[in-house]
Design goal:
The structure holds 2 protein chains of 2 kinds. By secondary structure, chain A is mainly α. Chain A is 22% helix and 0% strand. Chain B contains 18 helices and 17 strands. In chain B, the strands form 6 sheets. A 6-stranded antiparallel β-sheet of chain B has the order 3-4-5-1-7-12, with helices on one face. A 3-stranded antiparallel β-sheet of chain B has the order 15-16-17, covered by helices on one side. Classes of the chains: A mainly alpha, B alpha+beta.
């Protein structure tokens, strides 16, 4: 990464809102609510399913 | 354009058959499509297709292909191209066919984000019905996945199509859209466990990021670009460009699909208006991949000239320019409002983020399971859960479980989806295509996105379907083929 200047606006001047200079934090994506149906299905997943899954390249 | 852009989505589905491999996939995909049990017409008109034409004004000699796939075809003898593709055109104007071994559903053209999202979801039902019929006939377990990777280096696409005026030209389109394509994955990525090329990671935002090799080119199968320049308008090429976006992910959450399309529409409307923000990203391919792998939430982007910004600031610049310079319709206002809410939620409201965007929903699901089962990110079973998130069968899908639990903004109810398998409710040219399939199969000889060809009393009659005309629902009530053709001609005159 360069140590150059940070641009918070596009090169073409356009009216806009102020940007947040503080920088975002890591998204907090903790466990979803509930969980019984999800866990039930996850425990039924064959852990090797993705290993067997081979595809041709598409577009 | 009246501030509206006609758009569609093509989804290539992943296909798994018990006891079969990638070398069988073309045959299996053909057979699956042919088992579709619903009403359809089978003769697609390929005359107007031009996948080697480039928006920059030249035509490639040939398109590149993945050399690994060539090995699968050694010693295999298949029929003619149209037999392999096995096209099905549905009474809603959609196209369902085999594309390089993947069942592909191309929605009818839609004006609104709501209708496009509904048709994208209805397509999942079409594919699932075909898969169920094929499973019954073959006696094998068949699974279909709405995703973009096999976790072993093979990718398949979910493409968006946007019809814009030819006068915009390549340069304007490229400058207006490329920064959006790089930045929008933060709000639209489907999420992926691990990496298949480039720097290693445990989890990333985009299913497709590993597969881009160049910022811009015409290819789609190999050395894929972020900005695809295929010039195949499916309309009068003097008037229209169909922007073919191949860098997006297959989304399970319908709101994510709507946001994905709505963000590109914003960029295009700004381009038409001459007010798109200007950003010069130093290395678009590397940046696409680094944003996808960003674990900090900063989403830093290096710009030309030793300066830098973030994906958030690029997105906000489009929102601000839209509000300042466009007369926004309801769809565009929703895109701006919802996107800002989601950007804020990524920092402050994880439940909202998990409900709205697939990468956050999937990551939350995986972290929940890892905690329950005392696993970590190195566990080799995680790609299997990633894959099953995308299972199209709502009874098996992990996304379906999250929907059942209310953790994600789920699919619309079936009462809204099932009618759209056989009908289209906006006055687009899909009404005419669908009506011809539903009512005039005895006369219809071939159909494409832009034309219908009939045979009447031994004479061929070709009808152009202009994309900007209005095609009312009354066309579906006409039962005489001659009246149908004359009515459309009168509307187009």
């Amino acid at each position: 990464m360069s140590d150059g200047d940070r641009l918070t606006r596009p090169l073409t001047p356009e009216p806009g809102r102020k940007t947040d200079e503080s920088g975002p934090a890591r998204p907090d994506v903790r466990k979803p609510d509930g969980g019984n149906e999800l866990l039930r299905r996850m425990k039924k997943v064959d852990p090797d399913q993705a290993k067997r899954y081979r595809q041709r390249s598409g577009e | 354009m009246n501030g509206k852009i006609l758009a569609g989505i093509e989804t290539e589905y992943g296909l798994y058959l018990e006891g079969r491999g990638a070398e069988d996939q073309v045959d299996d995909s053909m057979a699956l499509v042919r088992k579709y049990p619903g009403e359809c017409f089978v003769h697609w008109d390929y005359r107007y297709e031009s996948p080697r034409a480039d928006l920059r004004g030249f035509k490639l000699e040939r398109l590149a292909f993945d050399p690994a796939d060539a090995k699968f075809d050694e010693g295999r003898i298949r029929g003619k191209d149209h037999e392999i593709r096995s096209d099905r055109i549905l009474p809603n104007g959609a196209r369902f066919y085999n594309d390089h071994g993947h069942p592909e559903y191309s929605t009818p053209e839609c004006w609104s984000l709501d209708e496009l999202t509904l048709h994208d979801c209805a397509g999942q039902i079409v594919v699932l019905r075909a898969a169920e019929a094929f499973a019954e006939a073959s006696g094998r377990e068949v699974r279909v996945y709405k995703n973009n990777t096999d976790f072993h280096g093979a990718s398949y696409g979910t493409h968006e199509n946007y019809l814009v005026p030819r006068r915009l030209g390549f340069e304007n389109l490229f400058k207006a859209v490329l920064p959006m394509l790089v930045a929008r994955q933060v709000l639209t990525g489907a999420g992926k466990v691990g990496s298949e090329a480039g720097p290693k990671c445990r989890y990333q935002l985009s299913q497709r990021a590993d597969f881009f090799a160049e910022p811009v080119n015409t290819e789609t199968l190999y050395r894929r670009p972020i900005f695809n320049t295929r010039d195949e308008p499916h309309a009068d090429p003097r008037d229209w460009i169909r922007l073919h976006v191949i860098s997006g992910d297959a989304n399970m959450i319908p709101r994510c699909t709507a946001r994905k399309v709505g963000l590109v529409k914003l960029a295009l409307l700004l381009a038409v208006n001459g007010t798109a923000p200007s950003w010069r990203i130093a290395d678009p391919v590397r940046t696409f991949q680094s944003i996808s792998r960003d674990q900090t939430g900063e989403y830093r982007i290096e710009l030309e000239g030793r300066s830098w910004t973030t994906a958030r600031e690029i997105l906000e610049s489009y929102f601000a320019a839209s509000e300042a310079t466009l007369d926004l319709d309801d769809d565009s206002r929703w895109v701006v409002h919802n996107s800002r809410l989601l950007l804020d939620a990524l920092d402050h409201d994880p439940a909202f983020a998990r409900a709205q965007v697939d990468w956050a929903a999937k990551r939350g699901m995986l972290e929940h399971f890892m905690q329950e089962e005392s696993l970590d990110w190195d566990d080799p079973s995680l790609p299997a859960f990633d894959l099953e998130y995308h299972n199209v069968d709502p009874e098996q899908s992990l996304y379906g479980a999250l929907q059942e639990m209310g953790t994600v903004e789920g699919n619309p109810p079936e009462r809204e989806l099932v009618p759209r398998i056989n009908e289209v409710f906006e006055p687009t040219r899909a009404v005419a295509r669908g009506a011809a399939v539903a009512n005039f199969g005895d006369f219809l000889k071939a159909a494409s996105w832009s034309s219908l060809t009939f045979e009447i009393e031994g004479k061929y009659v070709e009808l152009e379907l202009r994309p900007d005309a209005e095609y009312p629902q009354q066309l579906r009530e006409i039962r005489d083929v001659g009246t149908f053709i004359e009515t459309i001609k009168e509307r187009l005159a």
